[in-house]
Amino acid sequence: MALPKIASPTYDLTVPSSKDTLKYRPFLVKEEKLLLLANESGEDTEIMGAVKQIIGNCVFDKLEVDDLALFDLEYIFLRIRAKSVGEVVNLKLLCPDDEETYVDVSVNLDEVAVQFNEEHESTIQLDDSISLIMRYPQFSFAQESSEGSETEYIFKMIKSCIGTIVDGETIYERADFTDKDLDTFLESLTSEHFQKMQKFFETMPKLQHEVKFKNPNTKKQQKVTLEGMNAFFE
Q: Does 3 reside within a domain?
């Protein structure tokens, strides 16, 4: 005789970048086990793989997880996590004023959102005729190994985020040029061009939440900005 199945509640969320509405359920014991095993491994690739599978299992709408902007993925997972094990998480945060005192702080995950910078532009104008149309770092890039130097990693990320190159009336989509072509193009840019690309990453949307609390030793008010999905877990 088959055992009864317990119905899971469903919820709606709005994807920050696209404003699309997704329907999802909390994760179940099987998904929680998957996440616990990944956390025990301590490997970032294992943890990201578990996050991908949990989102794929819990979201009812068709969703290409690999193509999600990283901040969208982090937001979706945080919403699923909040409805699964509770909206409030307890964190130990270091006081910035003395850099030695830790304080227990409660954070409501329902208040955590993706923050958008008004100065952010996804189109980078290099000169009068040439511009880049950028895309956000995707989950598929986050799964890649970060081995090598920091400079190599930065260039790999820049390459992964260049979606279109416009030269006057000519439009080059990413499928139109090779990695070697892109390397040659990037190496021909000036420092000013590179700074414009850096601004794209510095101002792009981020999962952020500001927390205020008091240092019990100095009695001073503290302000800490939590950024990224991992900041909300001990």
A: no
Assess whether 129 and 69 both reside in one domain: no
Q: What is the C-alpha to C-alpha distance for residues 65 and 70, in angstroms, rounded to an integer?
A: 10
Q: Same domain, yes or no, for 106 and 193?
A: no
Task: Please enumerate in sequence order all residues whose Cβ is within 8 A of that of 140, keeping only pairs 6 or more positions apart, or say none.
Answer: 66, 67
Helix then strand then coil, % of the chain, to nearest 5: 40, 25, 35
Same domain, yes or no: 53 and 107: yes
DSSP class of residue 232? G
Containing domain of residue 186, as a range?
A: 123-203
Strands 21-24 and 130-134: unpaired
Which tens digits make up the pLDDT trace of 111-164?
Answer: 999 999 999 999 999 999 999 999 999 887 776 655 667 778 888 889 999 999
Total-model pTM: 0.88
What distance in Å separates the CA atoms of residue 101 and residue 95, rounded to the nearest whole number? 6
pLDDT of residue 1: 67
In angstroms, the CA 179 to CA 185 distance is: 10
53-100 per-position pLDDT tens digit: 999 999 998 888 988 999 999 999 999 999 998 899 999 999 999 999
Rounded CA-CA distance 10/59 in Å is 9
Of 118, 132, 116, 141, which Cα lies nearest the Cα of 196? Answer: 132
172-to-87, 130, 197 alpha-carbon distances in Å: 45, 11, 18
> How many CB atoms sit inside 10 A of residue 224's CB?
18
